[in-house]
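Here is the promised in-class demo. Please do not try to memorize the tokens; focus on the logic of going from shape to residues.
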């Protein structure tokens, strides 16, 4: 008997450039025993060792929200319609609520059941833009179920849709591939080796980390690993502050290489300003025993638990104080390291995949009745 077929994808290059594509690779690899997955994406370098069973490159030229978005969504819809006729999937998973490919899936799905998946950036966009909000509502309306990673995201989706589709929202906690054991061994020194890693955009608020380094009591060392449009401004701000230990900037690196680097640091700084779906790299840091200091935004405290310290989003003074607190108390460092590793065990990617598998099977079964 053939496996049920899922069609999904993200209208981003087929690269590990954001948490969403990495998460999808992790999840759909683990769905492979039960489902065949076809993943749609924009052209990438071809070097990423992803775990998708089948990929298809989209031909539409991407346009984000704005005057050309409607035409872009129409082009994607035509492309998706042809792919659906050819591949005949049993179910569609629309990643993101209202982004271009999700909107195309919603418009082309017809009688094929559709589960949409919220990722955070989509919900933030819908809170800031009428165009994005209307797109989100259209996708949610077309969905049999809407999967969200936590209660904070469920509340946001329900608010944006004015509670019209509350019965469709299903919480599926996200996870990561867990290491066998933590790699970090906490030190007792007062000068901390600090790490910030991820996409360098305005919402990740790396500038808060840079400015906090000028306000700490000790001359801590900061490494920023990542790429994005904010990099020139960040390097300029770091130079302008004349820090006692200049900030080290390193380009984006594959996650396995990043995991190996965790052992070189004493704490991970996660400074998102707004809603965060999961905080994948922060949970990965925790899984390796690295204490996390994070902005107290919806969803993160729930995800990161007691293995972390929180500070008000965008508040460099408060972040500096939290860093100094950790530096002055080696005992706290050891306690947080143990708690971080224990907390991360709650976020096993196998649990995520199992929940999504069960939801998909139930939706397909209902559609066939």
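The designed amino acids, position by position:
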């Amino acid at each position: 008997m053939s496996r049920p077929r899922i069609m999904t994808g993200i209208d981003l290059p087929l690269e590990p450039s954001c948490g969403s594509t990495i998460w999808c690779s992790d999840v759909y690899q683990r769905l492979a025993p039960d489902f065949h997955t076809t993943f749609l994406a924009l052209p990438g370098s071809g070097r990423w060792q992803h775990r998708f069973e089948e990929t298809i490159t989209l031909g539409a030229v991407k346009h984000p929200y704005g005057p050309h978005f409607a035409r872009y969504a129409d082009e994607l819809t035509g492309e998706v319609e042809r792919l659906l006729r050819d591949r005949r999937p049993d179910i569609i998973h629309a990643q993101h609520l209202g982004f271009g490919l999700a909107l195309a899936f919603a418009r082309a799905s017809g009688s094929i059941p559709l589960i949409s998946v919220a990722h955070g950036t989509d919900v933030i966009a819908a809170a800031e833009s009428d165009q994005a909000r209307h797109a989100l509502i259209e996708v949610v309306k077309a969905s049999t179920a809407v999967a969200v990673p936590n209660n904070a995201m469920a509340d946001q989706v329900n608010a944006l849709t004015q509670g019209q589709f509350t019965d469709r929202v299903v919480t599926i906690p996200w996870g990561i591939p867990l290491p066998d054991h933590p790699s970090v061994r906490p030190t007792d020194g007062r000068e901390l080796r600090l790490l910030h890693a991820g996409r360098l955009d305005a919402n990740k608020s790396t500038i808060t980390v840079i400015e906090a380094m000028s306000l700490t009591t000790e001359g801590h060392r900061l490494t920023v690993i990542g790429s994005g449009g904010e990099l020139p401004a960040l390097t300029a701000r770091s130079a302008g502050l004349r820090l006692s230990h200049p900030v080290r900037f390193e380009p984006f690196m594959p996650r396995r290489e990043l995991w190996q680097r965790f052992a070189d640091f004493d704490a991970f700084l996660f400074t998102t300003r707004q809603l965060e779906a999961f905080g994948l790299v922060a949970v990965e840091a925790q899984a390796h025993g690295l204490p996390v200091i994070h902005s107290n935004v919806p969803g993160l405290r729930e995800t990161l638990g007691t293995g972390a310290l929180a500070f008000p989003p965008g508040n460099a003074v408060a972040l500096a104080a939290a860093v100094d607190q950790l530096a002055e108390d080696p005992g706290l460092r050891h306690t947080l390291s143990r708690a971080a590793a224990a907390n991360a065990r709650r976020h096993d990617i196998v649990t995520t995949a199992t929940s999504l598998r069960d939801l998909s099977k139930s939706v397909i079964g209902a559609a066939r009745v």
